[in-house]
Amino acid sequence: MITIIAAAGENNELGKDNDLVWHLPDDFKRFKKLTTGHPMIMGRKTFESFPKPLPGRLHIIITRSKKYTPKVPEGREQDVIVVNSIDAALIKASIDTTPFIIGGGEIYKLGIEVTDRIELTRVHGTFEVDTYFPEFDKTQWELVLKEKHEKDEKHKYAFTYETWERI
Q1: Where is the signal peptide, in residue numbers (predicted)?
Q2: What local confidence, expressed as pLDDT, does residue 84 receive?
Q3: Which of 1, 116, 126, 133 has its CA 20 to 30 A from that of 110?
Q4: How far is the CA of 97 from the CAs of 11, 15, 41, in angstroms?
Q5: pLDDT at 143
């Protein structure tokens, strides 16, 4: 089951200047819990936004560049694969039954047609961004889980976890 995982604002805002525009520690914990042990498909910019590869996950990077060599700490080379298409990424990810597509915006657009599930954290606010989550036809999807998280001392914005499954 291929799963997209994303956090997006009320108008599908994802981020600006290759970074998130909110800080939601509980959402980070959920991301870690869901993705650990599974391959993650991402674009080059998303990979480069991490200080280093995330532990316990294979990073499959999609880039148009045939010469791209990611900066990877010594001993972590086996945690990173570079491919040039979503199809190649899905083939590499097929070693696992639950690969995740983790962004950015262009990779979400490529992956939305082949995805079985969307784990969407809807951040309740509007934001100035340069990257957006793609619109998806909700008539082709069923909302199977909706869990609200209120604003608190650690979270400047309220948000809702939504799990969508393709019908």
Answers
A1: none
A2: 97
A3: 126
A4: 31, 29, 13
A5: 98
pLDDT digits (tens, 9 = 90+) for 8-19: 999 999 999 999
Q: Which residues pair with 12 in a beta bridge?
A: none
| DSSP summary character for residue 66 | S
Could you say which DSSP state residue 19 is in? B
What are residue 161's DSSP bridge partners? 121, 147
Work out the percent of the chain whose per-residue pLDDT is above 70. Answer: 100
The tokens describing 163, both together, are 């799990």
| Residue spans per domain, the chain | 3-166
**What are the structure tokens assigned to 131, written together?**
């990257």
Residue 105 dihedral angles phi and psi, to the nearest 5°: -55, -45
d(CA 96, CA 100): 10
The Cα 162–Cα 139 span in angstroms is: 15
Average pLDDT over the chain, rounded to whole? 97
Q: Which residues pair with 145 in a beta bridge?
A: 163
Average pLDDT over residues 101-116: 96
The reported pLDDT for the residue numbered 100 is 98
What the block records as the tokens of 40 is: 């993650």
Would the pTM of this model clear 0.85, i.e. be above it? yes
What are the tokens at 121? 């954290």
Chain centre to alpha carbon of residue 48: 14
The fold of 3-166 is Dihydrofolate Reductase, subunit A (3.40.430)
